[in-house]
Amino acid sequence: MAMHQPVPDEVAAPAAVKLGRAIVITSGKGGVGKTTTTANLGTALAQRGARVALVDADVGLRNLDIVLGLESRVKFHLLDVLEEKAALDEALVRDKHSESLVLLAAAQAREKEEVDTDRMRALIAALRERCDYVLIDCPAGIELGFKNAIAGADEAIVVCTPEVSAVRDVDRVVGLLGNRFKPQLIINRLRPQLVKKGKMLSVEDVNAILRLPLLGVIADEPEIIITTNKGEPLALRRDGETANAYHTIAARVAGEDVPAPAPELRESLMDKLGSFFGGRRA
Amino acid sequence: MAGRRIVVTSGKGGVGKTTTTANLGAALAKRGLRVVLVDADIGLRNLDLVLGLEKRIVFDLVEVAEGRCQLRQALIKDKRFESLAILPAAQTRDKDAMTESQFEAIVAQAAEQADYVLIDCPAGIEGGFRNAVAGATEAIVVTTPEVSAIRDADRVVGKLNDRRLPMRLIVNRLRPEMVRTGDMLSVEDVCEILAIELLGIVPDDAEVIDTTNRGEPIVLDPTARLAAIYEKIARRLEGEMVPFTSFDAQGFLGRIIGALKAG
Predict the structure, then answer these.
(1) What is the CATH number of domain B4-136+206-261?
(2) Which residues of A touch B148 (CB under 8 A)?
(3) Does A225 touch chain B (CB under 8 A)?
(4) Architecture of the CATH domain A2-276
(5) pTM summary value
(6) Per-residue pLDDT tens for A224-271?
(7) What is the ipTM of this complex?
(8) CB nearest to B151's CB, from A63, A112, A172
């Protein structure tokens, strides 16, 4: 395969190549923030100087390119590489913001059934030779797209929102991942105000069911929708609670011993108004 | 006459297919219509949770397909609405446990005894999507006003077009204040991109998370503003001309007034 063209250095000293880590970001349920997490964690790792490749495994419904603002720069995609229509280096899109970050986009007009699992595994292995981290953005569901996304990975991060349906789906995915992965958990879109009012599951509620090592908790922030629509991951910033939460998660992924980030409770203006009117807000 | 068979789909996950299916079904049942909700998300079922019926499941969709029970044995009657029933998905099976023709046959059979069969489609466009769509003669496409959701919806609209399915659009989780500041696409923007007929606009409401967690569809709460909105959507499905609530161009005060008026 084109991706296996040996570079002279490798031939001379194959033992010197330290393989990067291949981590799949998955959830079962859709819309819980897999793609946003992949983009932000990748950005945060790259900001630390790591070489990072992001792979969009959602063939037919790709979005990682949009979240990174790279949609106009995609020339070749995952299936082009798997089918040897393009070399891996040609297909990797350099990020606009982080020098050591590259994207391998999914094919938009193709189907998940067209991905060959063995070739997918070989592709991830090839990326691990040139990067410190390969983050694989898994499609929703547990069909073929899921199976192909996890094929080349050796670690998993599961993303869950504090909702019973998301928790149930993650629980199922953890079961399907089996013992090969040691999944770590990111709880996404927590609204501390709702937790306080008893209207949302707390971090403890979620993890009482899942019982997974917690990487961190991300608050529900309109800022994330805005940065996502703009194609500029929030983790490009160095200030702000949510941006910092992604940097802390990246540090934890890199093995630093720092506590898992958790959003703080702050009373919003609407909350105050809500209690002023003596009822719940609509 | 057999009932209408409508698939609720989106491409992207987490935009509110299941919540829409449950609330629209409840709103139709509240009008006295006979409604069957089919959870097509085999392996990742959730419609039962949203309706608080998870403990009552005895048989599921796949068992009906395999002839291990009758359709009427697998249907679970809702706790609150006499004319509402769900057909749960199997939780420990895969989506390829069923074929398109099996799915189509079950939905057709359900439609014989109902005015509406709403099919809650899984995320994605794989086998589970094809099964869910195979049973339908109409589609409701749910999207949120986000670039990624709209791109996915566009792909799905193309696929539904290929099958000549008539479809209408629900724009879900609109945040009017973000539209106003230019941080979110407006309903007009979304309609222009997708170019399909609008069926409803549902604003983002934190209350939904809570009612969903408790297994109580929000249409049960007569004071909830979303209850009125789902009821309007149900009336539009029934063919009534119901004007759309305007959420755009609402200032801060407008929002407060809107919240107090609730609906």
Answers:
(1) 3.40.50.300
(2) 35, 63, 66-67, 228
(3) yes
(4) 3-Layer(aba) Sandwich (3.40)
(5) 0.89
(6) 989 988 999 999 999 999 999 999 999 999 999 999 999 987 665 555
(7) 0.87
(8) A63
